[in-house]
Amino acid sequence: MKRIPHTQEFREQALRKLRERGPRTQQSIADELNISLATLKGWLTAQSSAAKGLPHGASPLPGDLPAQQWGPAERLQALNESHGLIGPALNAWCREKGLFEHQLQAWREAFCAGAEPTVREGRTALRELQAKHDQLQRDMRRKDKALAEAAALLVLQKKFQALWADEA
Fold first, then answer.
1. Contacts 24+ apart (CB under 8 A), 76-81
2. Which structural domain, as residue segments, surrounds residue 19?
3. pLDDT tens digits, one per residue of 28-38
4. Which of 60, 126, 149, 165 registers the highest number of CB atoms within 10 A of its CB?
């Protein structure tokens, strides 16, 4: 069988149709475009891995694990990837990753709830640092006063010695 090369534009249109397919199956999209399902899935995998835009060292979302077994890093990555998606685009993304929209919502709530104690801990640490800063400021003012007093005493001592040196 002769291999038919497809243009990049055709691939992008096919992948866009696949993501915005609504209730249709991947097979029906492949049949409509007159390409095999394996080809379409291969393009999807290639585009997903090439255009992830993941930070260095980040791995793609695990396809072999159920979403309930994903760790915090994978869940955060899924929240980042799905952040701007709404409606059919979000549903298509969820189907592609094997997730449900309610899972993303629960992860988002858990992530936001987990950040609140950190804020409280930060406020407590800030108060402690401010108290330490105030104590150091008081110590510095006290030492400045003692230094000024010592300098004044030295000046007076030199003047006193100068007066006695003149009389002798």
1. 76/111, 78/104, 78/107, 79/104, 79/107, 79/108, 79/111
2. 1-50
3. 988 988 888 88
4. 60
CB 98 within 8 A of CB 63: yes
| 38-47, 64-73, 156-165: least confidently modelled range | 64-73
Overall residue count recorded for the chain in this entry: 168
Number of domains in the chain: 2
* Half-sphere exposure in the Cβ direction for 15 (13 Å, CA): 19
Q: How confident is residue 13, by pLDDT bands cut at 50, 70 and 90?
A: confident
* Residues 10 and 75 grouped into a single domain: no
Residues 76 and 118 in one domain: yes
Residues 6+ apart with CB under 8 A from 99: 67, 78
Q: Which of 61, 81, 82, 80 is nearest to 71 (CA)?
A: 61
Q: How many CB atoms lie within 10 A of CB 146?
A: 10
The CA distance from 150 to 143, in Å, is 10
- 63 occurs within a structural domain: no
Within this chain, do residues 44 and 84 fall inside the same structural domain, yes or no?
no
Q: Are residues 28 and 92 in the same domain?
A: no
Closest CA to 69 of 39, 98, 101: 98
Same domain as 111, residue 76: yes
pLDDT > 80? residue 66:
no
